[in-house]
TrEMBL record:
Residues 360-424 form the OLD protein-like TOPRIM domain. InterPro entries: DUF2813 (IPR022602), P-loop_NTPase (IPR027417), TOPRIM_OLD (IPR034139). The keyword Hydrolase applies. GO terms for biological process: DNA synthesis involved in DNA repair; double-strand break repair. It comes from Tatumella ptyseos ATCC 33301. This is Putative OLD family ATP-dependent endonuclease.
Length: 535
């Protein structure tokens, strides 16, 4: 069983959010999308410690006039983790009939009244269930799909940290006993030391949230490097072991993480939901990779929030979700099932996720044909004091991957785009592709710019920068030679990117007013797109 979807209305910082989960869901977005509210909602619904939770007026979303909403709703939908799967027997036995195709819905609703706040847990598709059965179902769900919220250890109480140490020690003993018969994973001191490492790291770097005062469990600096080496060794041993042999080990390691907030052990059919909150906060990218390599092996559904481009590059592209706030609604963008072909996914995965993962955080892509345009536009923006990064703009060349996959991906992910093409035959084909991807609300004027010349070199030559190319071609300023010959010779004596930098330097000498009007208008439109205008 796994969590399929969550819908939130008027809970804390979220007015509305609907999010469909995968086995791994990595959530990225700007600061205001409602990350903490989403994680709190999941914790409220599925944490065993949430039974006594009572909403207060501050838990209701506040409207633009700073008034709390009258009602809030959190609804989770559960389903089998495979098309042919079934719900666990402990849950199915309590239901009068099997859930429909959309799954088992579990809701929490609250309403502000003159007498205070009323709240209720329910199963909307089974309105006639008695309260004792509802309570049994809730307990079964929380046992079979518990939330394990890993976050910065500085947000854990001393009591919880002590509980973690004892629970980890006991679970480590169970794990070692269970692996004594496993020849592949018998290891001597390395496995035992790595288990000790995991206990320490779970207390020092990340921890399961259980509330309380701020504190942390110190780890001596001299042992830190050794501990990370041991975790790396554990990852290596687990990764090279056949799945049937490593399954009990991973299950026991999952128990190690789950032990502190739960009494006893997890049932065999349990499918925990791990919430990993901003893991990059205290981790070097190399350490982050080690932690994720370990977590990725655990038999659990995972929801991760991050601002790390390194972590974005470690998960399948289909697992990346972009969230933003638009008119008080939190929107979720991701690649739908069968939304892109395998070939398109391969191209975008390499070109964006592997080669330039930070582009996934951009609000708008300026798509250009090649390296020359990337150099020149970035330099021109810098010369004019226009920070592309601060505006959420990323210049991306598309010649290697093709334009169509990038445009399709941008549409799925809510990334606005503008295409800059040459004026030659190839540029005309790119322009046609861009035009074909415009929606009814988008116009060619705001999303497409074409050079009125064969390429960017010919365009700048015609717009007052001929001497730059003549100097690069080692020709006198007013000497013989047509435009094509000068540009060809300049490229032979230098390179296209070097010529782009030379043009940018000349702009710096003359001032930003020397930038051709076409490019100035284009940059204004791209900035407008990044700020949410022009469809």
């Amino acid at each position: 069983m796994m969590l399929k979807q969550i819908e939130i209305r008027n809970f804390r910082g979220i007015a509305f959010l609907s999010l469909a989960f995968r086995q791994v869901s990595l959530l990225i977005g700007e600061n205001a999308w409602g990350k903490s509210s989403l994680l709190d909602a999941l914790t409220l619904m599925m944490s065993p410690a949430a039974e006594s939770f009572r909403l207060t007026e501050t838990d209701f979303f506040r409207t633009q006039d700073d008034k709390p909403a009258g009602a809030c709703l959190i609804e989770l939908t559960f389903g089998p983790d495979s098309p042919a799967g079934k719900l666990p027997a402990a849950i199915a036995a309590l239901l009068p009939a099997a859930p429909g195709a959309r799954g088992l819905r579990f809701s929490f609703s609250a309403r502000r009244t003159t007498q205070g706040i009323s709240q209720d847990f329910s199963f909307p598709d089974y309105p006639h269930l008695t309260q004792p059965v509802v309570s049994q179902l809730i307990h079964a769900l929380r046992v079979l799909c518990p939330v394990l919220r890993l976050r910065d250890a500085r947000f854990s109480s001393p009591e919880v940290m002590a509980s973690t140490a004892e629970g980890s020690r006991q679970t480590g003993e169970v794990l070692m006993a269970g692996t004594e018969q496993q020849n592949t994973l018998q290891g001597e001191d390395v496995l035992q030391q790595a288990l000790t490492l995991l206990c320490r790291l779970s207390g020092h770097y990340f921890h399961i949230r259980a509330g309380g005062a701020l504190s942390e469990l110190p780890v001596s600096e001299e042992k830190n490097d050794l501990l990370w080496q041991q975790l790396n060794e554990l990852n290596r041993k687990l990764a090279k072991t056949a799945r049937p042999e490593r399954a009990p080990v991973l299950r026991a390691l999952l128990m190690l993480l789950a032990r502190p907030p739960f009494a006893g052990t997890l049932p065999d059919e349990a499918s925990p939901l791990i919430l990993f909150e901003d893991p990059e906060t205290r981790l070097h990218p190399m350490m982050l990779s080690m932690i994720w390599q370990f977590l990725a092996l655990l038999p659990a559904q995972k929801v991760v929030t991050t601002n790390s481009s390194d972590l974005v590059s470690m998960v399948p592209l289909e697992s990346v979700y972009r969230l933003d706030r638009y008119q008080q609604i939190t929107r979720c963008w991701h690649i739908p099932d069968e939304g892109m072909s395998h070939d398109e996914l391969r191209k975008v995965t390499f070109h964006i996720q592997v080669s330039r993962p930070s582009a996934l955080f951009a609000r708008c892509w300026l798509l250009v044909e090649g390296e020359t345009e990337v150099w020149l536009i970035n330099e021109l923006a810098r010369q004019t004091g226009f920070s592309l990064a601060s505006e959420g703009i990323r210049v991306v060349e598309f010649a290697q991957s093709g334009l169509k996959p990038l445009l399709r991906f941008a549409a799925h992910m809510g990334i606005r785009w503008h295409v800059l093409t040459d004026g030659d035959e190839a540029g005309a084909k790119y322009a046609a592709i861009a035009t074909s991807h415009l929606t009814e609300k988008q116009t060619e004027r705001h999303h497409l710019t074409r050079f009125p010349a064969a390429d960017i070199e010919h365009y700048f030559y015609r717009n007052g920068f001929a001497e730059v190319y003549r100097q690069a071609a080692q020709l006198p300023e007013h000497g013989p030679g047509g435009m094509n010959r000068v540009i060809t010779r300049a490229i032979q004596h230098s390179s296209k990117p070097s010529l782009a930098i030379a043009v940018a330097n000349e702009v710096a000498e003359r001032g930003s007013q020397s930038i051709p009007l076409l490019l100035r208008k284009m940059m204004g439109r791209v900035r407008g797109l990044a700020r949410g205008r022009f469809g």
